[in-house]
Amino acid sequence: MVSVLVNWILSALALIITANLVPGFHVANFTTALIVALVLGIVNAIIKPILVILTLPINILTFGLFTFVINALLILLVAQFVKGFAVVGFVPALVAAVILWGISHLINFVIFPVKAV
């Protein structure tokens, strides 16, 4: 339970960092970032698997890079529903998807390291 809360807060921090790095990607405040992280997590858990299965052929052809396009589209979808979160266009959403992926992997590597068996 604690790791879920820590991951949620770190995801919100990743959104704030991304908003400072990517022009056209705006998060109003930390509370908004928490809401965006929650909604994006729910959308990624429910809608993303369906989209990945539907786009499997193109995902295979692009060696999985099309997943970033799916993530960008999901970010744009969440931006339509959460006030205080705005993404101006597809390119900022795509750049943000890549940066969020990198920050998330870095955070998970540092905070939640893989334990050797």
TrEMBL record:
Alphabetized UniProt keyword annotations: Membrane, Transmembrane, Transmembrane helix
Coiled coil: none
Domain of life: Bacteria
Transmembrane residue ranges: 6-25, 32-54, 60-78, 85-111
Pfam families assigned to the protein according to its UniProt record, in alphabetical order: Phage_holin_4_2
PANTHER family referenced in this protein's UniProt entry, alphabetically: SLR0284 PROTEIN (PTHR37309)
Protein's UniProt name: Phage holin family protein
UniProt organism field: Candidatus Curtissbacteria bacterium RIFCSPHIGHO2_01_FULL_41_11
